């Protein structure tokens, strides 16, 4: 279910939260200023990551924060389009795809310089490129989300996609190596 993650200002303090109905929540909280909101599929995960990120400036026994100007700018960036952190668990799969592609291209160029047999070079490139997918399969994510941040089984979809991609890459590597005669 989609929802919003928000950053509001109330007095001298800031609040980070999530809601399914932003209008109703803002009427309830009556903030002095709505600084930033973002709509995403799984708001609880991003909210938990932001709460953890700024936990050292959280007022005890409250949902309010004393953010410095730098932290405020950072929090607005995290809620914006050009965020440094993945907003959803699915984004981590695309990070793994990017890592896989990068490793494949990098190792292909390195092995071309070594001048091995072409099928062996390609097999090794596929094998090394599968590493980010195996990591994603084993861990479920790259450390940005805690399992308590996520809805049940949401990381499993990522793990299954990563397993399938890792198996395909590893199978390509195996088939190329098996065609190579030592």
Question: Can you describe what's shown?
Answer:
- By secondary structure, the protein is of the alpha+beta class.
- It has two domains: 3-79; 89-179.
- The protein is built from seven helices and four strands.
- It has helices at 22-29, 43-53, 69-79, 89-114, 118-129, 131-139, 154-179; strands at residues 3-10, 13-19, 33-40, 64-65.
- It has a four-stranded antiparallel beta sheet.
- Strand 1 (3-10) and strand 2 form a beta hairpin.
- Helix 4 (89-114) packs antiparallel against helix 6.
- The longest helix has 26 residues, at 89-114.
- The termini are far apart.
- The mean pLDDT is 84.
Summarize this entry quickly.
The protein is an alpha+beta fold.
Topology of helices and strands:
Elements: E1 3-10, E2 13-19, H1 22-29, E3 33-40, H2 43-53, E4 64-65, H3 69-79, H4 89-114, H5 118-129, H6 131-139, H7 154-179
Antiparallel strand pairs: 1-2, 1-3, 2-4
Helix pairs in contact: 4-5, 4-6, 4-7, 5-7, 6-7
Radius of gyration: 22 Å
Major sheet size, sense and barrel closure: 4 strands, antiparallel
Number of E-state strands: 4
**What is the overall number of helices?**
7
Global geometry: elongated
Percent of residues in beta strands: 5-15%
Which key phrases capture this entry?
4 strands, alpha+beta, 182 residues, four-stranded antiparallel β-sheet, 7 helices, 2 domains
